[in-house]
Design a protein that fits this description.
The structure is a single chain. By secondary structure, the chain is an all-alpha fold. Helices cover about 70% and strands about 0% of the residues. The protein is rod-shaped, with a radius of gyration of 45 Å. The N and C termini lie far apart (about 95 Å). The mean pLDDT is about 85.
Length: about 190
């Protein structure tokens, strides 16, 4: 059907081109409304056929990749925040996390003590281990394994932070180190 209509269309185009160059043959073709109606019907059938053929055509599509996501740069202290999350909980591996936090604080405190006291870092670490680096008993206890905490100080710490003495001691130790570092920077 499509080939026949295409053949009729091609013949009509050729006849039209021929008549446009040789206009004397135009009188041979019937010019009545029936001829125009036949051409319109043929064009309509061809149009419907083209639309139906298009509906049966398989659609090929492609999938685009996901758009590039923004890179999230780590913020200084993210790892410490994560370690503190583990260290603040009670469960397995807490002591290891607390030891890692304590080691990092000892390293920072040793630099601050060395700057403030004008001594070497190894000497500063010895002072921290003996609890001689600060007057604050909780900060001294928090960073040293050899320094104990008096029962009265432990009771005050418990009263100040009934849910997490570890976090309270950590905050207090960081505050003492920060004050020490500010004095060393002057």
């Amino acid at each position: 059907m499509r080939r026949a209509l295409a053949g009729v269309g091609a013949a009509a185009v050729l006849v039209g081109l021929f008549v446009s160059f040789q206009q004397e043959f135009a009188a041979v073709l019937p010019g009545s409304w029936v001829f125009v109606l036949l051409v319109a019907v043929a064009a309509g059938i061809q149009s419907v056929s083209a639309v139906l053929a298009r509906r049966r055509t398989e659609i090929y599509e492609t999938e685009t990749g996901d758009p590039e996501r923004r890179y999230e740069a780590p913020v200084p202290g993210d790892d410490l925040h994560e370690i503190m999350g583990f260290a603040s909980n009670r469960g397995r591996g807490v002591n290891r996390s607390r030891d890692r936090v304590r080691e990092r604080l000892v390293a920072v405190a040793a630099v601050a003590v060395a700057d403030t006291e004008d001594c070497s870092e190894s000497e500063a670490r010895d002072r921290i281990e003996r609890g001689e680096w600060t007057d604050d008993p909780i900060a001294a206890w928090f960073l040293s394994q050899d320094v104990g905490l008096a029962p009265a100080e432990r009771a005050r710490l418990l009263a100040a932070a009934p849910f997490s003495q570890y976090e309270a001691a950590f905050d207090r130790t960081v505050r003492v180190i920060d004050e020490l570092a500010e004095r060393g920077a002057r």
